[in-house]
Design goal:
The strands form 2 sheets. Strands 1, 2, 3, 4, 5 and 6 form a 6-stranded mixed β-sheet that branches. The protein has a 6-stranded parallel β-sheet with strand order 9-8-7-10-11-12, with helices on both faces. About 45% of the residues are buried. With about 375 residues, the chain is of the alpha/beta class. Helices cover about 45% and strands about 15% of the residues. Helix 5 (about 145-165) crosses helix 6 and helix 5 (about 145-165) packs across helix 10 (about 290-295).
Length: about 375
């Protein structure tokens, strides 16, 4: 892998390799873009097939956070970190404290949070070594588990997507097929049930499915059957790459709105949804409730204020559909366009300011 060529092609700023021999820490921190502010993104712990795979994952996820934070209106850039190791057996206090010291050494250019393989408890340990961590326990004045906030954003974004197709945003009586019954999906089902939506749910975890059935009256189906069920909304809340050549022809839904990351297996599948007239709410915009919530911790966490910001996901999704119609492009491209436009405007403004400052300085020196 030609790392510098890759970083130059996609305009990355920094890539840090960190290790601590005593604790066994091996981690990679990628900072993609800090035009809008310091890079915020979670720390993933995973058993990667190779060091190169870990590098690629960190870089890919960091760029995704740049777009997510920009599209969400946050004054934050994009970054991500990965710790190489098995989250079930390789965690230790000394490892996370060593990692926290490395983050502190970046002096605020990167702010971390939990991600796949890490927990609130892990963030609490990191917090002992650095202030540049979010998503720690409420006991420390923070927001804790981000799942309810993520689900609330999905709920609001789904209403915006439903409005785009049906002409109003009511979910009462709508049939929503939810793929997944984990933490985010559970809270999403609660919001949907409270508005009177009819739920169809699936998950490989039968106990999680039964919980949703018992509490919200959901109908359960086999995981392989979820794509073809008769429904108004398909809500992918589990795996990525589930919108592909095999699944899209099965869909009966008019709207797709869910929390899963990287739902499109390839960009061309977003083109296909557009051609079929299926309303697709881009994943990194609609699932931003969690990062919006933890970002509020940087100002001293206030739940009411954070959830007001999460509600803006509704307007963000509506804006994406406006761009899509005006420019006649698929919604996934419209989302990228919206994020890039915000970054470019701030970048141009900053360059203009610096140019003006240099001009003034030269005049003073004459």
């Amino acid at each position: 892998m030609d790392i510098f060529r890759y970083m130059e092609e996609f305009d990355y700023e920094e890539l840090h390799f960190v290790q601590d021999k005593n604790s066994g820490l091996k981690a990679i921190i990628a900072i993609h873009d800090t035009t809008l502010g310091p890079a915020l993104g979670g720390t993933r712990m995973w058993t990667y097939a190779s060091e190169e795979a870990a590098i690629i994952d960190a870089l890919r996820l960091a760029k995704g956070m740049t777009y997510k934070n920009a599209a969400s209106g946050l004054n934050l850039g994009g970054g991500k970190a990965v710790i190489i190791g098995d989250p079930k057996s390789d965690k230790s206090e000394e490892k996370f404290r060593a990692y926290g010291r490395f983050i502190q050494g970046l002096n605020g250019r990167y702010i971390t949070a939990e991600d796949v393989g890490t927990t609130v408890e892990d963030m609490d340990i990191i917090y002992q070594e650095t202030e540049f961590v979010t998503g720690v326990s409420p006991a420390f004045g923070s927001s804790g588990n981000p799942s309810p906030a993520t689900a609330y954003g999905i709920y609001k974004g789904m209403k915006a997507a439903v409005s785009e197709y049906f002409g109003n945003d009511s979910l009462e009586g709508k049939v929503v097929a939810v793929q997944g019954a984990g933490n985010v999906a559970y809270h999403l089902c609660r919001f949907l049930s409270e508005e009177g939506a009819r739920l169809i749910v699936t998950d490989i975890n039968k106990e999680a499915v039964k919980r949703v059935q018992d509490e919200f009256g959901a109908e359960a189906v086999d995981p392989a059957d979820i794509y073809a069920v008769q429904c108004d909304v398909f809500s992918p809340c589990a795996l990525g790459a589930i919108l592909n050549d095999e699944t899209i022809p099965q869909l009966k839904a008019k709207v797709i709105a869910g929390s899963a990351n990287n739902q499109l297996k390839e960009n061309r599948h977003g083109d296909l949804l557009h051609e079929l007239g299926i309303i697709y709410a881009p994943d990194y915009v609609i699932n931003a409730g969690g990062v919006i919530n933890v970002a509020d911790e940087l100002y001293g966490y206030n739940k009411e204020r954070a959830y007001k910001k999460i509600e803006q996901i509704y307007n963000n999704i509506k804006k994406i559909f406006e761009i899509s119609k005006h420019e006649q492009i698929p919604s996934y491209l419209a989302a990228d366009r919206m994020a890039e436009e915000r970054i470019n405007k701030v970048s141009r403004s900053r360059k203009s300011f610096l140019t003006n400052e240099k001009h003034i300085l030269k005049k003073r020196m004459k």
